[in-house]
Design goal:
The protein is of the alpha/beta class.
């Protein structure tokens, strides 16, 4: 379900020391809307958001040197009268993994689902600004939305294999395009399953139901289905949130491997995951882009103190 822009509720971990404290001391974790900046530091971006003022996100100059597959330009999205995304401008670099991070409700999934227009399915949604894929406007009235979605693979939070065989799950995008040649389908199945690091585990049971696989295998099956038609962009909405650590590791290794062939845009709440799999990270807060830079910069030397507070777990 798409995210709203309601501010996250205040949560507090045990404060350092104090009466009754047990175990290792912990840093207080607070809602950024209530957080006070360290002495001598000003949270300019968050203050602007709270006061309804415009501000310029911190965008690293390395982005300007990248070739963009997806371009988001002054993009706003509304649910009825409620504004969920505020003037987002960012480029998604070709052949790289870009992570969208931020607290729950900041608009990460809403932005991701705008790229392939899944938000169109929600009553009352309207947009301004534009999103381009390979220079072509996504929201142009002449765009065939079905054809647009065929250009992008989508992997959801919860694995959603179809109630059919592993083989038929993988070739489903080709079937609906009218491809029936067995040789082409067989090659596509093997290529996609190898690409999803699943071939060796299922090659002898392709006719069995995809629902009989483990949770991690089902998610990799969904990735195989998403890449079977060779999409231009792979969109991933928290693909590991429902998986155990071992299955998560396999998915992360897979993302790293396929990023050499596909442009990947991934939403994640897991900061360690963003650091491990992505080359670029965009930090969002309450429907705004706050900072966008190479992942190493975001986690090691962010431009804004708000970003440092978030990625180090001081609020969320």
């Amino acid at each position: 379900m798409s995210e709203s822009t309601t501010a996250p509720s205040k949560t507090t971990a045990p404060a350092q020391g104090g009466a009754g404290a047990s175990g290792p001391a912990m840093t207080k974790r607070v809602d950024m809307g209530d957080a006070a900046a360290p002495e001598g530091v000003k949270f300019e971006a968050i203050d602007a958001i709270r006061e309804g003022r415009t501000f310029k996100p911190a965008v690293h100059p390395d982005l300007a040197r990248e070739s963009a597959v997806v371009e988001v330009r002054d993009f706003c999205l509304y649910y009825g009268e409620s504004k969920a995304l505020h003037n987002i401008t960012l480029d998604v670099p070709r052949g790289k993994v870009t992570a969208l991070v931020g607290p729950s409700g900041c608009g990460k999934s809403t932005l991701l689902r705008s790229v392939n227009r899944l938000n169109d399915l929600i009553p009352g949604v309207r947009v301004t600004g534009e999103i381009l894929i390979e220079g072509q406007p996504v929201f142009d009235p002449s765009v065939d939305v079905i054809q647009l979605r065929k250009r992008m693979g989508m992997v959801f939070q919860k694995s959603n294999p179809f109630p059919m065989s592993i083989y038929e799950n993988v070739i489903y995008p080709l079937r609906i395009d009218g491809e029936n040649r067995k040789r082409v389908l067989d090659e596509a199945v093997e290529r996609a399953l190898r690409g999803a690091a699943l071939w060796d585990e299922v090659k002898n049971r392709l006719k069995q139901s995809g629902l009989g696989l483990s949770g991690g295998q089902q998610q990799r099956l969904c990735i195989a289905r998403a890449i079977a038609a060779e999409p231009e962009v792979l969109l991933m909405d928290e693909p590991c949130s429902a998986l155990d650590p071992i299955a998560t590791l396999k998915i992360e290794e897979l993302i790293t491997e396929i990023s050499s062939r596909y442009t990947v845009l991934i939403v994640t709440h897991n900061m360690q995951q963003a650091a491990r799999v992505s080359q670029y990270t965009a930090f969002m807060y309450l429907g705004r882009l706050v900072e966008y830079a190479p992942t190493a910069h975001i986690f090691q030397n962010p431009t804004l103190p708000e970003t440092e507070q978030y990625v180090t777990g001081r609020f969320g």
